[in-house]
Every structure is written in structure tokens, then in C-alpha cells.
Specification:
The structure is a homodimer of 473-residue chains. With 473 residues, chain A is an alpha/beta fold. Chain A is 25% helix and 25% strand.
């Protein structure tokens, strides 16, 4: 492990033991030597979050389902506001928080931050070789406070909302910054690296970004989650260093396809915020925001919360500064989280019939066609389509369904106001079927011992879900 | 004009004079001869609807804005039910109705119709050379009833929901049928030809469809509106015989692009129905249905209504049979229609900034970039995208805005719950600005003499619109 200078003549070296019982020896240029043994983790400490297929798991094997929020400039606020934010977070279900290391310059964000990460050169440029220790000390204190609430810090390392010059440093300067960051923060179990926020709005070339991604992967000894979040063009999430798919998009009909394409966990880290801003991305009703969470989660992905209410007076907005929450989505997100955590495994999205049919390879279609029954008409119309035509049709006809093997089936009805639906359950198993009102947060048993094709009565209003759980026999 | 046999020894010849004052002579094989002069039309008779650019106009030059509904099997119901449907229609804003000439076989539609259009051969196949006159007489009577209410019949000539064999006749049989149809019905000013409903679900080849389209165009002396409605793949609406774009799609973010692409009027003739069916297409809330109308109309296109409520008892469903309406969308569609009809001209959708920027030709981008100001960041991220990436981004970031030159600007906010918006009006003109609550059907003046960039307060809830009309000076 490489150490770092933390000011006042003090050099530090941090490490994160991932096994109990191992003995470590410390020695080196700073004239310190010693040894100690590693005890088992406290029950509440689960270690670093890593990925397993399209799921997240803690180092100790426990499932981790990210339900994040967004406070971009959290680490650049007054102590009092940070404390108020913590008081708010305690009452939320959030277990991940996206925040920038560098200060943010944008609407409602025009002030200089209390502290900068580096000292300045005589010409006003940043001297990345001279970290400003008070900044880093405070960042760590803040991150540990989040961690004590069970919140992973999804730390945004670069972004474009900048007037101080942090977004336009050279690749060499960027790497000096990352070197210090990784030496200081890698031993924190609860940190994630979000390489860029809206990376494609920055004035960096793709090769510059790739160099930074490589640098982090090479210098983080613990392989913390590493992702890169887009504005317009998705990052290439298939790159081996990338642990999971972090996306900004409102096109939630694509979520299941992304999960299948990348075979990594998918988080839609930005699909719009609950609020009243004039911007299309910042004026969603709580109902719409909660629905976006359900659309993602039903198909085995995750979402991130954000809130943008302006009351005409206070310019403290949750999405950047923290403080208090004013919306109505948070209890509903908690309700969803509880359901997702209670499932007997990880949900995988179920393809709609058009998705399923279009995936049949050309040379098998004639054979498959004979077996399709009612679906023959759809296949006949679908198969001649070009990929572009097919995806246009498929995307606009999406419904939201997921399953945990044969153990659980979840249908989310979104804006559909149906009076009934027919579930198609395995006929050799029995299910307990619940009607879930995702907005009013009620769960009601509607069928016991359901099997095969069964009709479920629905209440003709939006935002309903049906969960079928295999009954224990 | 070609005549037709209408039974009981009677041959008829119909024509539709489109100018007053002209003298016509009638003579021919049926031993009839005579002449008469053509008087000017009654004030309520406006003639055939035709197109002018992306607008519809009656033959007398009056604007026609289609606000249609859908009663697929209207012409195959009992007299009593037809009368009940007429009683309902009188109270609606609808001025177009989609209905099939052939009977329909589908969920809730399993009965044989009272009458068939042709006599049967000994083997049970249809003898298209022997029209069943009672069917055609009744069809005409029904269409004239609709016409008397100012309703255009958008007559669907072929569809796939069939168990009687009408969808699988030979091209020759189809043309014999069309020949009789065109001789009988072309002189009705209020008929439109919808070549196929979900044409691509039928077992007809594209060349078969094209042959039918040509046949109609060649044999309809009056050029009634002619379109073809899809299930999955859009018909090629750029074909010269096609008068307007008739589309089934939920992808309403594409509407403005279609209007621009085809330079013809666009009607989204199927974007889902208000109702409580389990099918995703038949369970929209009234709010969602009304919103789909606004999304289409704001960008200069039109929508079509349909209703699918099943109460668990009566299998009379508006979308197929007619009868009574049970939903809440109709008064709101009437409210929208009144606004659209009151505008000083035809709306044209306004491109969003990403749409606008992406259209800048490659070789002009360097020059344009310098002039972009705040939009430079977006251009930098957008311009490197492939067409597929760009349209993915653009489609999912759509907002709904239209204008009538500089005379009127309409913003529809859909699900946006903003507290305010900034209108960017021409600074050399003055506008009267109204806030429209599209659901509660209220209009409220919020600014007078507005000019240039002005903020408008919005009430933080969905389904609002703002209309700026140039003030008279």
C-alpha cells in the first residue's frame, strides 16, 4: 500500500483488510514498524460492495440493493447545512449518494466553496501536488458520516459544471489528483468511483477519459465500484474496468435490454428529479418519480432519487445542497426498497413477446413459427422489420415484468388502469398473489395457491403492481 | 362516371359536382338521359376534405381539424345500437370516425354480423360479383347519418380480425369489391379511404397492398383522403397516392418529425384507448388519453379517440360497437378542439434545441458553433453522435411546443409540474398570454403585452399549457 502526506508532518498509510485472522506488517520510509492481527468485522460492517452478474453484493456476501439519492455539491456546503442533510438522510431509505469531489457551478450554484482540494499556484492555476489538507480531512469526515448511516458515497471525480478550472486540467494533473485520492480514500469500504458526471459534456477526449479509467483501475487495490455517467452518449459499459452500468436516461424501456447487453448491474443514476423547476429534468411529480423507480426495479435494475423544489426564496435545493426534503416520493421509495429486499433473489426482467420473438435467430424462425399459436400474427409482422424498425416498435410497446426464477413474479402496471390481468404462472407450482398499490403503499393478498393461468382483479387505476410468490409447501 | 347495379332492377350513377353553375348531361346504356344545373352548396356543406401541406381543408377552403373516434364494427350492429351511438355522438366533438366495412372478429366481437357485403358461392366462398344490396344500402344510410352530424367516415377497407374470409380474398376479388365500393360511395363527400387497419397483420404481400392502393387512386374520381394504418411497420406515407399520414404508435415524440418528413397532415389514429382492459393499448386513464391528444395537436398533428371499458357484464364496448361513452376524456377533447379551431392558423411543431442542432449540416457546424452561446456544450456532445445515438437521445428528451408563424405560440407541459417557465417570444411583437389547464378546462390570462423573454408562473401540476397570441394593435 502506498501512503500519503496528510499535513502537519504526518504521513499516513491506510489499508482495508478483507479477511480476519491475517497478520499485517507495517514498515517503510516513514520509520514506522509494527504488526497486529485482524479481527472479524463488526456485524454492521459488510465490506466493499462488489458485483456478481447483474447483482451487487457486499464483501461478506450480503445483498446490496442501491436506492440512491443525489446531492451533487454536498461536500461543499456549510457544516450546519451538512448536519441538516444528515438529519434528513437518517429518515430516508437511501443507501447511496452521488456527490462531486470538485465544487459545482450552475443555476442555484454560484458561490465559491468554503474549501478547495488544492493550493493555487502564483498564476491562479491549481497545484495538484499540494493538496489542501483541510478539504480532504473534511471530505473524509463527511463520507464517514454517510457511511455510519449505511450510505455508499458514489463519488463523482470529474464534471463540467465548473468555473474554477478543475474540469480542464491536463491528463497528467488529473492523474496526480487521482493518485492522492486513491491513496487517501481507497481504504474506505463505502466509496464508489463515478469517473464522470455527464462525462460527454466535459472538454476531455475519449482517450483522456479512458486513460483516467485505466489509472483508477490500476491504482485502486480494492476494486471499488467504478462507473461513468453520461449526458447524451452512454459510456462503453462493456469495458472490463467498469463494474456496473450508470446511466442518465429517461428511456426506461431500454433498462432490461441494457441489463442483458452488459450482464452487469444497471443503475439509472439520473432519470429526472421530483420538483418544480422549469427544466424538463427537474419538474417530475412524486408519482412519476416513484413510477420511474418501479419501472427500473421491476426489470432488475435500480434508480436514483433527486429533488429540485424552489420555493422562490431559499436557494438551498436538495439536488445540489441537501438540507430538507419537500417532496412525497421518499416514503414510496422506502416501500419499494422493502419489497425488493424481501424477494427470494434478484429480479430479472422478462422480455415482452415482441422482444422474445425478435431474438429468435433468422435460421430458426421457420421452425419456431409453427409452435407460436396466437403469436403467429405478431411474428409475421415483426420478423420482416429492420433492427431499427423493430426497436422503434418494441421500445414503444414496453411493459414492465420481472421474475426471480420460478420463485417470484412481479408485474408493474405503471399508467395502465386495467380492471384485471391474466397471470401466466408455472402450472406445477403454487403462488401467493398480492396486489400492491405502489403509491398508497398497501399490499393485499388477492389469491392463495394460484397456479397456471389465473385472472387477478385490478382496481382500474395507475401505479399498481402484482407480486406472485411461490408458496412454501 | 361509372354506374352500379343497386338491386331490384335499378342501376344508379352518382356524381359529386364540385362547382356551381356547371350543366351536366346524363345518358348511357340504361336508357336515361337528362340535364340539370348545379346550385351553390348549402352553407353547412363544405365538400370533400383535402390536404394543403400539413393541413386539411374542405373543398370550400374552410379548415378541417380532425378529432376522430373509433367504432370499428359500427356498421355491423343492430339498428337500435346504431341509434344509441348516434345519440351519443351528437354530444361529442368528434368529426371523424374510423369503422370497418367488413365485420370484425376479436375479443368481445364473436357474433356474426346481421348482413354481409356479398352473396356466398355454393362452396361458402364470397361471390364479390354479387353484392348483397341490403348491406350496402344500410352502410350508406349509416354513413349519411354520420355525415349529417358533420362526421367524416374513415372507412377501413381491409383488416385482419376476420373469420369469414374477407381478409384473404385474391387481389382480383379485392379489386372487384373496390370497384363496386368506389362506384357506390365516391360521390359521398364525407368518406375517407383507410386502405388497411393494421395492414401489416394481414396475410397480404406489400405488392398486393400497393396494387389496391393504386386501384383506389385510379378509380376514385374525387381523390378522397387515402391512408393506410399500421400495426408495427409504418406504411410508406411518402407514396404519392397517400393523402395523409395515418399511424398507430405510442411514440408521440416522433410526431413532429413525421410531419416534417412527409410534409402531409399527420393523424395518430391509434395511440391507445381510455378504458380498463388488461391490454396495454386499452387501459389508459382519461388524463393520459387527453394528454396524448395535446402532445399530437401541439406539434401540428392530430389524434383519434377510442374507449374500452368493460363493466363485467355488457359486451358492448365503444371501440367496436358504439353505444354509450363511460369515460372522462371527451369534454377535454372538445375543449382542446375549440382551442385548436380558434387559432389564427395551423400549428407547426417547434424543434427542441437538440433536434435543431443535429440538423445543422456537417460542413456548417464549425461556423454555427461560434454563434451558439449557451448551446455550445450541447452541440459539442451531440454532434459526434451517430444518427441512432442522436435519435435515442433526442427522442427521450422531447418537449411539446408549436407555433403559428409569429402569431401564436403553444407550449404543452404534459407531466411537467414546473413552478414557472420562460417564454421566448419575438421581441418586436406583443402577446396576450393564457395559462390553460387542459384537464380542468380553464383558461386564464396571465400576461398582457408580453414581449421577448418573459417568465410565466405555472401551478406545479401536470397537464398545463401556455398559449401566447399576438395582440391586435
Amino acid at each position: 500500500m502506498d501512503g500519503f502526506y496528510s499535513g502537519k508532518g504526518c504521513y499516513r498509510l491506510r489499508f482495508l483488510p478483507e479477511q480476519a485472522g491475517v497478520r499485517y506488517h507495517v514498515y517503510g520510509c516513514v520509520e514506522a514498524e509494527g504488526s497486529f492481527s485482524v479481527e472479524p468485522a463488526e456485524p454492521d460492517s459488510h465490506g466493499i460492495v462488489r458485483t456478481a452478474g447483474t447483482r451487487f453484493v457486499f464483501a461478506d456476501g450480503r445483498d446490496y440493493h442501491p436506492f440512491g439519492t443525489t446531492v451533487y455539491a454536498l461536500f461543499h456546503q456549510s457544516e450546519a447545512l451538512f448536519e441538516e442533510t444528515i438529519d434528513t438522510l437518517v429518515q430516508t431509505p437511501f443507501n447511496k449518494l452521488r456527490a462531486c469531489l470538485f465544487p459545482k457551478y450552475y443555476d442555484f450554484n454560484h458561490d465559491d466553496p468554503p474549501l478547495y482540494p488544492f493550493a493555487q499556484n502564483a498564476d491562479g492555476s491549481w497545484n495538484v501536488h499540494r493538496p489542501y489538507f483541510a478539504f480532504w480531512d473534511r471530505l473524509e469526515t463527511n463520507m464517514l458520516r454517510l457511511s455510519s448511516l449505511g450510505i455508499q458515497t458514489d463519488l463523482i471525480l470529474f464534471h463540467s459544471y465548473d468555473r474554477w478550472g478543475f474540469s480542464t486540467m491536463s491528463p497528467e494533473e488529473d492523474c496526480v489528483y487521482l493518485d492522492y485520492l486513491l491513496r487517501r480514500l481507497s481504504a474506505f469500504p463505502s466509496v464508489w468511483w463515478s469517473l464522470g458526471n455527464e462525462y460527454d459534456l466535459c472538454k476531455k477526449s475519449i482517450s483522456h477519459w479512458e486513460q483516467l479509467e485505466e489509472y483508477i483501475a490500476d491504482h485502486d487495490p480494492y476494486r471499488h465500484p467504478l462507473s461513468c455517467h453520461n449526458a447524451l452518449r452512454l459510456w462503453d459499459h462493456s469495458r472490463p474496468n467498469i463494474s456496473h452500468v450508470s446511466i442518465q436516461s429517461k428511456a426506461l424501456w431500454r433498462v432490461n435490454a441494457w441489463r442483458q447487453q452488459y450482464r452487469k448491474p444497471v443503475i439509472i443514476d439520473e432519470f429526472g428529479y421530483e420538483g418544480n423547476f422549469p427544466h424538463a429534468w427537474g419538474c417530475l411529480s412524486a408519482k412519476e418519480l416513484v413510477s420511474r423507480f418501479w419501472r427500473c426495479c421491476t426489470t432488475g435494475a435500480y434508480g436514483s432519487h433527486g429533488e429540485t423544489f424552489y420555493d422562490g426564496k431559499s436557494e438551498i435545493i436538495w439536488w445540489s445542497h441537501g438540507g430538507k426534503l419537500h417532496g412525497e416520493s421518499v416514503p414510496r421509495i422506502a416501500f419499494l426498497k422493502e419489497i425488493i429486499e424481501s424477494l427470494p433473489g434478484h429480479l430479472e426482467g422478462i422480455d415482452t413477446p415482441p422482444e422474445m420473438l425478435y431474438k429468435v435467430p433468422q435460421n430458426q424462425r421457420a421452425e419456431v413459427y409453427k409452435t407460436l399459436g396466437e403469436l403467429q400474427t405478431l411474428a409475421r409482422a415483426l420478423w420482416p422489420l429492420s433492427d431499427e424498425e423493430a426497436s422503434f416498435y418494441i421500445d414503444s410497446e414496453i411493459t414492465y415484468q420481472g421474475r426471480v426464477g420460478d420463485k417470484a413474479f412481479l408485474n408493474y402496471y405503471d399508467i395502465r388502469c386495467s380492471a384485471w390481468d391474466t397471470l401466466r404462472l408455472p402450472s406445477d407450482k403454487h403462488y401467493h398473489v398480492e396486489l400492491i398499490d405502489t403509491w398508497n403503499m398497501t399490499r393485499q393478498t388477492v389469491l392463495e395457491n394460484a397456479s397456471g393461468n389465473v385472472d387477478v382483479a385490478l382496481p382500474c387505476r395507475e401505479y399498481m403492481a402484482v407480486l406472485a410468490l411461490e408458496s412454501e409447501k
